[in-house]
Write a structure and sequence with these properties.
By secondary structure, this protein is α+β, with helices and mostly antiparallel strands. It has a domain of 58 residues: Mth169, Chain: A, CATH 3.30.1280.10. Helix content is 26%, strand content 24%. The chain contains three helices and four strands, in the order αβαβαββ. The protein has a four-stranded antiparallel β-sheet with strand order 2-1-3-4.
Length: 118
């Protein structure tokens, strides 16, 4: 039944932002333009990415796979942090390298596995 299919959908929201220690030239350009256009009080601007992902089903192993894809595909863990939120769920997952909270998200440690040097 078509109605059942829509009830079993989950939506994930992913926010990817440059780490605080990383320069953001695009954000600086937007800040300068905003100041030039009459907003001299703008102190800083950070430019990031926002994604909404629709997922079929409510499988429990979806969240770990999504976190893996956020780290390996949707963000560059060297220069970016990401936050993952499942819609309809108040739990948030976030990378640990962020220095300030973004949207009251819980911090999460993410580590890359090192390849053995054989």
């Amino acid at each position: 039944m078509l109605a059942d299919k829509y009830r079993e959908m989950m939506k994930a929201k992913v926010i990817v932002m440059p780490k605080a220690a990383v320069l953001d030239p695009q954000g600086n350009a937007v800040r300068d333009a905003m100041r030039h256009l009459g907003m001299p009080e703008v102190r800083s601007v950070r430019i990031g990415k926002y994604m909404e992902i629709d997922i079929d089903g409510q499988n429990r192993d979806v969240e770990p796979r999504l976190l893996h894809l956020c780290r390996d595909l949707l963000s560059n863990p060297v220069i970016e942090d990401y936050a993952l939120q499942k819609t309809g769920d108040r739990s948030h997952k976030r990378t640990s390298n962020a220095q300030r909270p973004m949207f009251n998200v819980q911090r999460q440690k993410t580590k890359r596995k090192r390849k053995s040097s054989r």
